[in-house]
Design goal:
alpha/beta; 5-stranded mixed β-sheet
Length: 479
């Protein structure tokens, strides 16, 4: 199948050797950066020169603690410096001045500027989302005390190259899916996120792992996953895609997540494709009543109001937690270890599905890919583009039959999750005539109902009103 993959996807395939290659693992780079380097420096056989890669990393991907050295180069050595990093641009409403932040180096927009002429050259790339990855070139604007008002010294952006070493052709990707069976495609997608398909014992294990990708490919998919430690949750949500955000637990307050009134800035929910809140069992949500109120509204509509600020985002929210093994049972109450925020049916109702993390094996060497696979950067860019394709939801609406008096939130949750599965596993489907009804039922609709059913079971253990209630049985229409 690797030969088949290389034949059809050509330059979008790289050789990954996660089991034996300690060189890249020691660098701690996210998968999309690693695959960018592999694509840039590897030959047709997947071989690369470590010295060349090391030199590139040293020059373009310095560590945060090297920022003082970089500042010295820019300010006192009067040099321009190039970095491969993410940049977040801001426009001051009162003055019209344009500035930027470099989150990975702790550089704020108060220390920076973008001149209008430079902005005109690169604005189309820089305004795509909240944070953009690219090769940035930095210089320095010297301070001037001889004029009034005084001009302060600032680091300035003098060049930008978008971090995307190829064209993301969505139609080509969809067409190439036709050349693979469903079993083969499951393995292709696993390889794209760095996992070796042969390391899984069952198809259920494979599908459970791939369920984590649903928020990558469909807007506003909210899921909760409770799992044992060591199953790779943090890796998938924090290192595979540049379009997502993984919080490292700690304190997740209304101001941090939605809107910071003191700084007059939207929170981290605005911008990424999804926000994964890790170690949710240990998270401090601040004022839980306040957080519950704004979170419920956001999970339902993708909108929020905080301190008079009306915000909107398409980011799905993913809650990740480790619970005791004896509590991993969908027919028993599993939320007792979580903050009281989650022990309320109204909030749970707005989470579309539950991922049984205990169906995913603990990470081990047999699950680390060694071989040719889709470039993670390319694959996640495809998933990002698929989020805007509404044709799949239209297909789901046409082929799914909903029983009378079905609960609206249940049917919406099931349809949204089924749509995400359809995009992920059957992207080549263009109309209802392209769908294999049995495969759609087995791989999209039934898994979506199972994920939603667990939410319903947990609600019934909190509130008698939900006890004994099941999700509506959705099925494929007869044609």
């Amino acid at each position: 199948m690797e030969e088949k993959l290389r034949d059809y996807f050509e330059e979008m395939v790289v050789y990954k050797d996660l089991k034996n290659n300690n060189f890249f693992s020691s660098l701690g780079l996210p998968a999309f950066l690693r695959d960018y380097l592999l694509k840039t420096f590897s030959d047709d056989y997947g071989r690369f020169n470590m010295d060349e890669v090391s030199e590139f990393i040293k020059k373009f991907i310095p560590k945060k603690e090297e920022w003082m050295r970089i500042k010295n180069q820019i300010i006192y050595e009067n040099e321009t410096v190039q970095l491969l990093t993410k940049i977040a641009v801001d426009i001051n409403i009162k003055t019209g001045e344009i500035s930027f932040a470099l989150p990975d180096f702790g550089v704020t927009d108060k220390e920076t500027m973008i001149e209008p002429s430079v902005w005109e050259l690169y604005k189309n790339d820089l305004i795509q989302s909240g944070e953009v990855w690219g090769i940035i070139k930095l210089g320095y604007r010297q301070p001037d005390d001889t004029v009034k008002p005084k001009i302060s010294g600032k680091i300035k952006l003098v060049g930008f190259k978008n971090f995307c070493p190829y064209t993301v052709d969505l139609d080509y990707y969809k067409e190439m899916r036709n050349h693979f069976t469903t079993d083969e495609w499951l393995d292709v997608v696993l390889g794209a996120i760095d996992y070796n398909a042969e390391g899984y014992e069952t198809e259920l294990q494979k599908l459970s792992m791939l369920t984590r990708l649903l928020p990558f490919v469909e807007k506003k998919v909210n899921i909760i996953e409770l799992a044992p430690k060591g199953t790779g949750k943090s890796y998938v949500f924090g290192h595979v895609s540049k379009y997502g955000l993984l919080t490292d637990g700690g304190k997740v307050t209304r101001s941090k997540m939605f809107y910071d009134a003191a700084r007059r800035k939207p929170g981290f929910i605005c911008g990424p494709d999804f926000v994964a809140i890790d170690e949710v069992k240990l998270v401090n949500f601040g004022d839980e009543n306040e957080m519950r109120s704004i979170l419920q509204g956001y999970l339902e509509y993708g909108k929020f109001n905080a301190n008079g600020y009306d915000g909107e985002s398409n980011a799905g929210v993913v809650f990740l937690g480790n619970i005791k093994e004896e509590n991993m049972n969908e027919y028993e109450y599993m939320l007792a270890e979580l903050p009281t925020l989650f022990q309320e049916t109204a909030l749970l109702d707005r989470i579309h599905g539950f991922v049984k993390g205990w169906d995913i094996p603990r990470m081990n060497d047999s699950l680390k890919i060694t071989g040719w696979a889709l470039n993670s950067e390319y694959f996640c860019s495809i998933l990002h583009e698929l989020r805007n394709d509404t044709s799949y939801r239209t297909i789901v609406e046409k082929i799914v039959e909903v029983p009378e008096h079905a609960d609206t939130r249940d049917t919406e949750a099931i349809k949204r999750v089924a749509t995400a599965y359809l995009k992920l596993l059957f992207p080549h489907v263009r109309s209802i005539n392209d769908i294999d009804r049995i495969e759609f039922t087995d791989y999209c609709l039934t898994p979506a109902m199972k994920m939603r059913r667990i939410i319903k079971l947990q609600q019934g253990m909190i509130d008698r009103e939900y006890k004994g209630k099941d999700v509506p049985f959705l099925k494929v229409k007869e044609f």
